[in-house]
UniProtKB/TrEMBL annotation:
Its cofactor is Mg(2+); Mn(2+). SUPFAM superfamilies: Nicotinate/Quinolinate PRTase C-terminal domain-like, Nicotinate/Quinolinate PRTase N-terminal domain-like. Transiently phosphorylated on a His residue during the reaction cycle. Phosphorylation strongly increases the affinity for substrates and increases the rate of nicotinate D-ribonucleotide production. Dephosphorylation regenerates the low-affinity form of the enzyme, leading to product release. The lineage of its organism: Eukaryota, Viridiplantae, Streptophyta, Embryophyta, Tracheophyta. Belongs to the NAPRTase family. Pathway: Cofactor biosynthesis; NAD(+) biosynthesis; nicotinate D-ribonucleotide from nicotinate: step 1/1. It comes from Gossypium stocksii. This is Nicotinate phosphoribosyltransferase.
Length: 559
């Protein structure tokens, strides 16, 4: 299944389709956004030109990187931001006191035609304090966007980061399947998780709805219930199976399976270790193979993995091989995954040698059963033969951390820079409209992100630039970049006339994310004790931050 393009489309006069979830409307916001809009309107300030930055303060999961996701859904919301008469009536009934008719007329005319959005590309590895989105426009309108935009970015970026962390631990060669639908926080949590886990590096999902909506490859076979629903091979009524090339038909595939099981049981190479297997399980495997001869993957732990599940699988796989089909493999959903995968691999290799079946020793082994980062890391340390992981609960619920904590802060209004102060320095905002760059070193790794004032010259390749910590005067360094990448691009130009960036296909966003992680220095993305990535400001912006800080902070008086 090919991943679909998820960019804008023209539909019945609309600029692009609306958000994936129809519940994402202008009312998906906090009440105080509408109370502020009314107060702005009463004060005549509602059209003041404001600039807001959306960013986060700390990387999740104890790591030192985050994957930015959710941008496309934000732009879809902005492109279709319009209140219905019914919604306006509800707002007016909900606001404290009475709503003036002038405000009602104002609400009828609200849209985002005068809003501009600049953002980092979706799937990019990002860091604290650097704006993921910069939203410019009439202050009342942009304020109404705050809550829904935060909602769309927070979980998306968190789960994409979680997926990327699992990918880093599993390694490039392993297949990762997202199996979290049944444990996710509701339908939207499940759909969002499937999409953003794919962006973060997973290969496929079990979620059929997500497969249809986004073109994500689908994977899935059968459950324990399917295996235990069979009582004996006598239940299989349709026993014939055509050869893969259609040249002939095996009239009794069940008997062919039984003959192969007998050969396995008498195999000297296996040391006569295979005894009687569970016949109801064999019936289930045989039935499934008859239904899906090209995609036979068996869940082997319903009764006993090594005494029954694996031998039964091998018997069916060998029978399929006789007819020109190649089985996919087995899935382990319980027990000691390192040990069982190793023992299963040994049997596959012995059968390959014993019966002359090239490639059978490399039959795929999938593992599931409440896997998480720690489990994958432990399996790596123990040694295992797992080729593919099916991961659900800990992945889609982001069990290790509940939220990312993005914030949406005013940094400029009517061309006047604004700053938010706090006794906690990490909560002090970086004022004014900014440009953001990523500077790369000789080895191709990114060295530092730097924010500059909007009108400052762009850092140049080969020219030394002073990078300063925004708040700690002793932390500074000169950098001579070998490559400079500007991070913020125009994704919604409003009335500015600027060219709008198009959204790539979902698979291209995924590829971008994987490439981004490859461009990070390994110590920044390692699981244990990662090195913090440097986020800096230019010398000129540093001076301005501290000038504004001193200017806005009240001076105390000792008595």
């Amino acid at each position: 299944m090919e991943a679909k393009a998820n960019g804008p489309s023209v539909n019945a006069g609309r600029v692009m389709d609306g958000p994936t979830n129809p519940m994402v409307t202008p009312l998906l916001t906090d009440l105080y956004q509408f109370t502020m809009a009314y107060a702005y309107w009463k004060a005549g300030k509602h059209n003041d030109r404001a600039v807001f930055d959306l960013y986060f303060r700390k990387n999740p999961f104890g790591g030192e990187f985050t994957v930015f996701a959710g941008l496309e859904e934000c732009i879809k919301l902005i492109a279709n931001f319009k209140l219905t008469e019914e919604e306006i009536s509800f707002i007016c009934e909900t606001l404290p006191g009475s709503c003036e008719e002038g405000f009602v007329k104002y609400l009828r005319n609200i849209d985002c035609s005068d809003v501009e959005v600049y953002a980092i590309s979706e799937g990019t590895v990002v860091f604290p304090k650097v704006p993921l989105l910069r939203v410019e426009g009439p202050v009342a309108v942009v304020q109404l966007l705050e809550t829904p935009v935060l909602n769309l970015v927070n979980f998306a970026s968190l789960v994409a980061t979680n997926a990327a962390r699992h990918r880093l631990v599993a390694g490039k060669s392993k297949m990762l399947l997202e199996f979290g639908l049944r444990r996710a926080q509701g339908p939207d949590g499940a759909i969002s998780a499937s999409k953003y886990c794919y962006i973060g590096g997973f290969d496929a999902t079990s979620n059929v709805a997500a497969g249809r909506l986004f073109g994500i490859p689908l994977r899935g076979t059968h459950s324990h219930a399917f295996v235990s629903s069979f009582m004996s091979p006598d239940e299989i009524l349709e026993r014939s199976l055509h050869r893969s090339d259609g040249s002939s038909t095996c009239e009794d595939f069940v008997s062919l399976v039984q003959s192969w099981l007998s050969k396995i049981q008498w195999s000297k190479a296996l040391g006569n270790t295979v005894g009687e297997t569970n016949q109801s399980e064999l019936a289930a495997f045989t039935s499934y193979a008859l239904a899906f001869p090209n995609n036979f993957l068996a869940l082997v732990d319903t009764y006993d993995v090594m005494r029954s599940g694996v031998p039964n699988f091998c018997a069916v796989a060998l029978a399929l091989n006789d007819l020109g089909y190649k089985s996919v493999g087995i899935r382990l959903d319980s027990g000691d995954l390192a040990y069982l995968s190793g023992e299963a691999r040994k049997i596959f290799q012995i059968i390959e040698k014993e019966f002359g079946l090239p490639g059978f020793g490399k039959t795929s082994i999938t593992a599931s059963n409440d896997l998480n980062e720690e489990t994958l890391d432990a399996l790596n340390k123990q040694g295992h033969e797992v080729d593919c992981y099916g991961i659900g609960t800990y992945l889609v619920t982001c069990y290790a951390q509940a939220a990312l904590g993005c914030v949406f802060k005013l940094v400029e209004i009517n061309n006047q820079p604004r700053i938010k102060l706090s006794e906690d320095v990490s909560k002090v905002s970086i004022p004014c409209k900014k440009r953001c760059y990523r500077l790369y070193g000789r080895e191709g790794y990114s060295l530092v992100d730097i924010m500059t004032g909007e009108n400052e010259p762009c850092p140049k390749v080969g020219e030394r630039i002073l990078c300063r910590h925004p708040f700690n005067e002793s932390k500074r360094a000169y950098v001579v970049p070998q490559r400079v990448e500007e991070l913020l691009k125009c994704y919604w130009p409003g009335k500015s006339g600027k060219v709008r960036e198009e959204f790539p296909a979902l698979k291209d966003i995924r590829d971008h994310c994987i490439k981004q992680l490859e461009q990070m220095r390994p110590d920044h993305i390692r699981r244990l004790n990662p090195t913090p990535y440097k986020v800096s400001v230019s010398a000129k912006l540093y001076d301005f931050i501290h000038f504004l800080w001193l200017n806005e902070a009240p001076v105390g008086e000792l008595q």
